[in-house]
From TrEMBL:
Taxonomy, superkingdom: Bacteria
PROSITE patterns to which the protein is assigned, alphabetical: PROKAR_LIPOPROTEIN (PS51257)
Coiled-coil spans in chain: 219-246
Name of the protein in question: Extracellular solute-binding protein
This protein's UniProt keywords: Coiled coil, Periplasm, Signal, Transport
Pfam families documented for this protein: SBP_bac_6
Keyword Signal part of the UniProt annotation: yes
SUPFAM superfamilies membership: Periplasmic binding protein-like II (SSF53850)
Localization per Swiss-Prot or TrEMBL: Periplasm
Biological source species: Floridaenema fluviatile BLCC-F154
Record flagged with keyword Nucleotidyltransferase: no
Length: 398
């Protein structure tokens, strides 16, 4: 599941900290593998100033969450016997494992089940209690990766966002269309073949459930209990020009599509770049939520002190304000019931912060039972194969 955007280009960045004059000991290093642009550059500078005892802040940046998940799966390579001989040892040392890695909440269950990460001790995180309860519960899982309020803590949320609707503001104005407010706009006849959707069953089936009834959840376990779901999905599929996880916004820029559904960190930069052409809205019936987390790899060192400081630093209220102000996503310190208490400096970030009412109708994509997973897969394949046939016939001129 690919998502979202980032600010440091792909590669490795090494930041030298200031050496404390009163310490003669060798300074430790903090190694982090993170998602590109998920941390505003201003906060990296603040972290350096806050933790001057750090000798090296080693950041490896990846452009996709999938690559970060795969990096957790890579096992350290055992050295050949001859490389252990002093005279034949390789000049380059093996790169140490990261202390923290960005992981999307969607991947958390798989990482736990595959034993790729180790649990965190919330008692050692002094700002843990500043997190809204929903985010504390999101990362409490059992050994199978399922939500368990008595389970261990497997990640530290550091930002969150939504799935939203982007649309061509200029085209809607020229044609006299009302601006989108909710998911039902995707079914309007005037948008036939003018929509691009994420190629994700949980997202598309979930928004259709919300269109049917805003009380429905993205985590509905028994799809067969929603009799109109299949017909609504088929009707939606007839509206769609194409599905994509990576290129769904390019046709919107070109005007080939007039509406796109996507992740907020993909859409918000586009709104900023083309303010007279493209606008966006968080659907009023509720939407899907996502969170990016810091996780501690199983193969990481046991020295968690600097990693703990990094996590706690991001949860300080004043830092959370700066994060939400300069970033393209919100700090979890401001979520849920705290949306009514936003500081003045970030109250205008309406595309980052939905109203508390809309937020309450929204859902994180939680793990489903095996039976429910199969229901989603079967329904998705039926709809998508039908749609592919229709689009193929159109492309052939019939």
């Amino acid at each position: 599941m690919k998502r979202r955007d980032f600010l440091l280009g792909t590669g490795t960045v090494t930041v030298l900290g200031l050496i404390s004059a009163c310490s003669s000991q060798q300074q430790a290093s903090l190694r982090i593998r993170l998602l590109k642009d998920s941390i505003p550059a201003q906060l990296l500078n603040k972290f350096r100033q806050e933790f001057q005892q750090i000798g090296e802040l080693d950041l490896t940046v990846e452009a996709q969450l999938l690559k970060l998940f795969e990096s957790l799966q890579i096992k350290p390579k055992s050295p050949d016997w001859w490389s252990r001989l002093p005279l034949l040892a390789p000049r380059e040392k093996v790169r140490p494992s990261s202390d923290l890695v960005t992981l999307g909440d969607y991947w958390l269950a798989a990482a736990i089940e595959q034993k790729l990460i180790q649990p965190l001790d919330p008692d050692r995180l002094k700002n843990w209690q500043k997190l809204p309860l929903q985010y504390q519960r999101l990362v409490r899982r059992n050994q199978q990766g399922n939500i368990d309020l008595k389970g261990e803590v497997w990640g530290a949320p550091y930002r969150w966002g939504t799935t939203m609707i982007a649309y061509r503001k200029d085209i809607f104005q020229d044609r006299g269309f009302a601006p989108p407010q909710d998911w039902d706009v995707l079914w309007k006849p005037e948008l036939r073949d003018r929509i691009s959707l994420l190629d994700q069953p949980r997202e598309v089936i979930g928004l259709t459930l919300k269109k049917i009834d805003r009380q429905n959840s993205y985590n509905t376990q028994q799809l067969d209990k929603i009799p109109q779901l299949k017909s609504e999905l088929k009707a939606l599929d007839r509206q769609v020009k194409f599905y994509s996880n990576n290129t769904y916004l390019q046709p919107l820029i070109l005007g080939d599509t007039w509406v796109a559904v996507g992740w907020s960190t993909d859409i918000l930069p586009l709104v900023q770049r083309y303010p007279n052409i493209i606008a966006a809205v968080i659907p009023q019936s509720g939407t899907s939520l996502w969170a990016d987390l810091w996780v501690h790899p199983t193969k990481a060192s046991n020295n968690f002190d600097l990693a703990r400081d990094w996590i706690d630093f991001g949860w300080q209220p004043e830092i959370a304000v700066l994060f939400s102000r300069f970033g393209k996503a919100a700090s979890p310190i401001f979520a849920g019931e705290k949306l009514n208490e936003l500081p003045k400096s970030i109250r205008d970030k309406q595309l980052i912060f939905p109203t508390a009412e809309v937020y309450q109708k929204s859902d994180f994509l939680l793990p489903l039972s095996p039976t429910a997973q199969q229901q989603y897969l079967n329904l998705w394949q039926e709809i998508r194969f039908q749609g592919l046939g229709l689009r193929d016939r159109k492309a052939g001129g019939s």
